[in-house]
Specification:
The radius of gyration is 22 Å and the shape is globular. The protein has a single domain, classed as Growth Hormone, Chain: A, CATH 1.20.1250. By secondary structure, the protein is mainly α. It starts with a helix and ends with a helix. 73% of the residues lie in helices and 0% in strands. It has 22 helices and no strands. Helix 7 runs antiparallel to helix 8.
Amino acid sequence: MSEIESTRIAARLDRLPPSRTVWTIVILISLGGVFEFYDLFFTGYVAPGMIKSGLFTAQSLGFFAGLGSIKIAGFGTFVFSTFAGLWFGVVLLGHLPDRFGRRPVFTWSLVWYVACTAIMAFQQTGEMLNVWRFIAGVGFAVQLVTIDTYISELIPGAERGRAFSVNQFITFAVVPLVALLAWLLVPLSPLGIDGWRWVVLIGSLGAVLVWLLVQGIPESPRWLALQGRTDEAEAIMAAIEQRVVRETGKPLSPPALAHVEETGRGRFAEIFSSQYRTRTLMLSVFNMAQVIGFYGFAAWVPTLLIARGITITHSLEYSFVIAIANPFGPLLGVLFADRIERKLQIILGLVVMGVSMLAFATVSSPVLLIVLGVVFTLAANVMSYAYHNYQAELYPTRIRARAVGFVYSWSRIAAAFAGLAIGYLLNAGGTLAVAVFIAIAMVVGIAVIGVFGPATKGISLESINH
């Protein structure tokens, strides 16, 4: 019975017209993701301040200083701790949204972020800074997995592309803010507190406000129906439909029943079944490749600019100018997100990222460095919203969160080691060595998506996974 009810719920969601009701939910969910992006992107922007504070000396780093033998025991350890924590969090906690629901995991991961990041801001040694960075990542890692799952299940199939582009426009809008805060605060010590600590604490305060805003978000009716909680799913679905009818002033069209999805709790082993094995391997390799470019540039942009001969103060200024471009990639995507096949958007984004990074490593003009940084950022963020949508589409509701968590976890562990690799390459071969490393990774991502990626544009989730 719950299988049929789940199919009906899915069909009712997919036939909804564009409405303020559904888009309000998307916006509120997206606000929750703002602080993962704030957290990830302040990594690069506060680096000069953390280094200036002496947090990455051998004495301050404690057991992390052991990485000094390969010349990457400085700021690279903070990047490593960030993504190692995110990897462990996704692996250990990625199943929670499938087990307990999208809504509770979404809201309480924000609480974890606030507590752990605030504690991290007051650490006085690089060793404990890295330890709390790791702990914060473990708890907060599941947030973005939950957001991707949540949005893919709530939005009608014909609008999924635009929903993810709007989602990432909102989340990336915080990047210029964190860059501006770092530019203004990192060189200073307001009230005797290092400026980088203020940047971290401001993020925690903002997360508290967002936590209050998102309390009214409903659970995913798709997930509820698959758990056999049909009364709750029906109540949420009926409320959404009533509001949509009031807004549009038109009756809803009859739902077109999709394929029936198996109910109950999914099993982790299912992501390696004959139906999903190729998708799982493809997305795992792709995530390792894309993150080398995405965070290899974003987390290191001030440091890369310094390596190109720009002073610390000007590197933060130029980084802010480049950061302004972050929301505009997804915003451009609103125009074509549901018109162009998802995998093609991903491939084109990777091509532009690789080419612009190689050019970035060869020019010295500040204007050209900024222009190329903006081009890279726009392409990276088009690629980002497209693949977040894509990987959530490729698995059924019963295992969607744990599957997305697993394939996404490879981006976290790859980013951790890529941070160490980029630190080494920057020291050994300069910006050009880093650019070649990123370009090779982009080629790998293009190959796996191009050869093994199925088409998904305009297809219901249930049909994609039948």
